[in-house]
Write a structure and sequence with these properties.
759 residues, alpha+beta, D-Maltodextrin-Binding Protein, domain 2, Dipeptide-binding Protein, domain 3, four-stranded mixed beta sheet
Amino acid sequence: MANFLKKTLSFFSIAAISTIISSSVVSCGMSLDYLMNREIDPEVYRDTYNYNISSWNTAHTMQATDAIVLSNTFETILSTDQYGRIYGALAESEYGAENATKKDAIYNYVGIHNDDFSEWEYKFRKENYWTSWDGKKVREVLPSDILKAAKYALIPSNASDVSSLYTSFIIGADEIFSEIKKLIDTNENVTQNEINAVFDRYVNEGKFGIIVDDKKGTVKFKLKQKAPFFESLLTYSVFSPIFDETKSDIKNFTDTAYNGAYLPKQINANGKMILEANPNYVLHDGVNIKRIEFDYLDGASSSRNRTLFESGSISGFNLNADDLKGWTDYVGDKYENPKFEGVYSTKSVEMAGTFVLFFNYFNRNLSDASRGEKEQKRALNATKLLQSFDVRAFLSTNLDRSRMVRYFSKTIDEENKPSKMIRNVYTGLSVAQDPNQENKDYTEFVSDYFNSKTSNKEKDALKDGNDPLLNKSKDLEIQKDKDELLNSINEYIKTNNITSSRSDGKIELSFALSPTTSNSLNPYVNFMVKAFNNIENNPIYIKTWTPTSTDDYRGVGQEGRTDLFISGWSPDYKDPSTYLETLLLDGAYRGYTGVGRLFAENKANDNKYEKIPNTDYYINKAVKTTDSFDILKKMLEFREQNDANNQEVDITKRYEGYAKQEYEYFYKNFFMLTLYTKAMPINYTVNYIQPFSRSYESFGTGQYKFYKAYQNKKLLNRSQIEEFMKKYNSALEEVNKDWNSCRYGPEWKNSNENNNCLK
């Protein structure tokens, strides 16, 4: 974890804190200088939200849009501070340092670990309480509440988003999940007690890798893999305790209890959400902002948050590159030297986030009579089409991503160059670095492997802002140009009896777009799609459509009712596996990709299915194509690679193995297409929240938490920002040298500060 602390402050542009150039002006000649003198109530933070809470159960949802609220109402075992340092939240921060029998020269872990990092132990803080939404203390938070979360996640019928993290990391979890799944699949009348008995048996017989002791207040994790990064995973909610595992997918916020810094007081769908400080929160003395108000904002333009801030309706905003007026008023012509004095730059929490285009290999509409015969037939043909290797290669190398991504980057892009915010590696930038090679970023390992297998020899060929795919299929391992791909696709369509429902004879793929971005990103997506549809002799036609609500849109993707879908992933922990685990046959994205529907288990007695030779899987005969078996073969190889890489503790070899695995998924088999990052090269913010009074880490949920954050009554001016950043740089340097330095607040037993430290 020492290497986690070695941050760079290059993201804070020195130019951003230089002398002000001139006053900024908004519409009607009104000067932005008035914003510098406006005062607010520092105990109330106001913001917007775009998606309703899908579930009030952290063992059920992995949605980042849920985490904005859930991370503040449900606490994690560990969390991250403003220096990127991991500390104990529900757990005691110093337990490892005080109790580990074997310690490094500098012991910078929260818990106790064994020699190969496959076992970890933590102790819960005292005075941890569950509290009802109306502020009534319910009972203590116990280590055994983690078992409740595990039980919920490992029952397949609960459709937990986080189950794959249990099965990937915890000893016995995969066996529990598989046994319960088989029990459900083979017994129509199975009872909840029978399902619970499977989980309880593994726990009681010591075959499950989460061992709790409520009397001592301890929890031990026994892992399937060697994971020196494991503590970064505990900053995410996946292994956090829940109040009641029997409540399932909780929709009403009053139906559960909370242990986080805030309590939900008002939750109105498509309306207002209000959180208030939890008086029973174990670290309540570190909560400075007492009330958080979120107002629903649906389908707004990129400038909406800026104008809401200017009117005083919200407390801050990030400047969007697609907000041309805002960019002109606040930044001006010189990207590295913004005009407005109240602008500051921090590390973007979106740096590690990657958005991708999913190809759905089994559109659920094909077996749903309620969708109508025409849609069922279209979905069947689309399902068969996307199984084609050549179709996926054609889509990946002929969709001009810059036409879409330009929406985010048009103010900073160079003419006739790809968008600066195209992303080519699924694992996000800055997620993992190799200390043996001067902290070489993992994405460079993928670029190196890409160069070894293709004709591209450009250093860091897959860095953001390059386009190694567009019209370059001949340079890749596929070694087919556009015409050769089209010939292969037409032959595949004929061989697999794929027919068109369109008058022009093309095979139609449906592409669901978010209603939230109807007036912003969607027109750019359509621009990209139109160019693709107009390719000469193209037998494929992409039809975009927009569900009626954001909840419907999210459901369409999760349930696999569209052929193409955009979604993003940000890391749960600091290792490439946090991304690659999502792509497994039973990974978190199995619903989006449809592989869990295309390849089924336990279908020996179902005449609709055919067993795939030399495997335990079956395929629905109706969707079988000449490429089906090859898809499964490649997916099983991917799983084998992943299992091997998970056991490698040599960082360099581990990253090299993952790089090969990731390259083959995206650039050899084209199972998915990476699209963009929302992180600009420099991230500009206008906000009353003090810079670096909260976490900016992209892994875990610390980035969403308001614990320790505080607001200034007025925006900081440029000289104040410059003075603060000098102090922050000194403090960060102290922490990088000594993990025990610059400690203050209730998360630490003892303060350890000097003149270089911040409060």
